[in-house]
Write a structure and sequence with these properties.
Length: 344
């Protein structure tokens, strides 16, 4: 014999009103209990298949390295592979849009950076996604400062103050290189230029290798370079570091002062990488992903590998990362408009 529960009543009559209220309340309670149990079961079973982590830059770059190192540790602990998928182009926005359009189930993640999530929306007016509305922040994984470097054969300055004087004395003869419009190097260069109130020419390249090659070759006087890229040339005496763009000195280069110490008030520009899920991803799934990332980043061998890349471990909570992004987007939007930065 098949048992079929009676349906929840949908018709009320005056004599049975009290009974209807009791029955409706009982049905609602059952539905809520089933839904809650289902949600807990889904979160507890996650992940039941491989997780895709999409990177908006080419294999071998900083974002790719971070995704693969963290993804490998997560794969070990979750029992499911984290598959890194590279979809380079348009400052990472192609990859971001791919994940924003994916199901909000935790199986598609985006390894984002400030270039994609903070800067690009302010220089590309018709992006198909909104960095604040299209994603659920999971965790900021790491951050890395830049170094203000000069070619010592072409620039005599040994401090930021001396470089500032040289630029102000003849701004038309000075230029700086970057890895491309909208990246942290460009933003740092424009912030420095804005604080000097000097008209210095920006020379964008398609990637950091071309930019630093021309600084090394003496064609461009200075640039803000990623710390691990610049350090070998600094140690070889081919570049001179004047300052670092973090608020604290970096243990990799403790003798290099910060831009703030050099007199540039509140100057901070960092490269950072964090993980985003599509908007409306269930909170238990987001928490599970964050927990896995936090555990991975706490592993001594992973911390050592990241430190070798001059990356500082952050491992922020979803709430902290969400607040961080919500503060960064309007802050840099104001500055980008003030600086007049556009896609080139």
């Amino acid at each position: 014999m098949t048992f079929r529960p009676a349906p929840c009543p949908s018709v009320r009559t005056a004599p049975a009103r009290a009974t209807w209220r009791l029955s409706a309340a009982a049905c609602a309670a059952v539905v809520g209990l089933v839904a809650a149990n289902g949600a807990h079961a889904d979160a507890g079973a996650f992940p039941a298949k491989p997780v895709r982590m999409v990177v908006g830059f080419a294999a071998g770059g900083g974002a790719d390295v971070v995704a693969r190192l963290v993804g490998a540790k997560m794969s070990e602990s979750m029992g499911q592979q984290v598959v890194v998928e590279n979809r380079p182009g348009a400052t990472g926005t192609i990859a971001a849009d791919s994940v924003a359009r994916s199901p909000a189930d935790g199986y598609s993640l985006f390894l984002g950076s400030q270039s994609t999530m903070v800067i690009a929306p302010n220089i590309y007016p018709k992006l198909p996604f909104d960095p604040l509305k299209s994603f659920t922040p999971v965790s900021q994984l790491v951050s890395m400062p830049l170094l203000l470097v000069v070619n010592p054969a072409k620039v005599s300055a040994k401090t930021v103050e001396e470089l500032t004087k040289q630029i102000k004395a003849n701004p038309s003869s000075m230029s700086y290189a970057s890895s491309g419009a909208g990246g942290p190097q460009h933003i740092a260069g424009e912030l420095y230029k804005h604080m000097l109130r000097a008209d210095v020419t920006h020379v964008p390249y398609s990637g950091e290798s071309g930019a630093i090659a021309d600084v090394l070759g003496g064609h461009i006087p200075y640039m803000f370079a990623n710390l691990p890229v610049a350090m070998p040339h600094i140690q070889a005496g081919k570049l001179r570091a004047l300052a670092i763009t973090s608020l604290q000195r970096n243990p990799t280069a403790p003798d290099i002062p910060t831009m703030v110490e050099a007199g540039m008030k509140d100057f901070e520009v960092l490269t950072w990488y964090g993980v985003f899920a599509p908007a409306k991803t269930p909170a238990p799934v987001v928490q599970k992903l964050y927990s896995e990332m936090q555990q991975a980043l706490a592993k001594p061998d992973l911390k050592a590998k990241l430190a070798d890349q001059s990356l500082t471990t952050v491992a922020s909570t979803p709430a902290d990362f969400s607040r961080f992004v919500q503060n960064e987007v309007p802050k840099w939007s104001t500055l980008i408009k003030e600086f007049g930065i556009k896609a080139e």
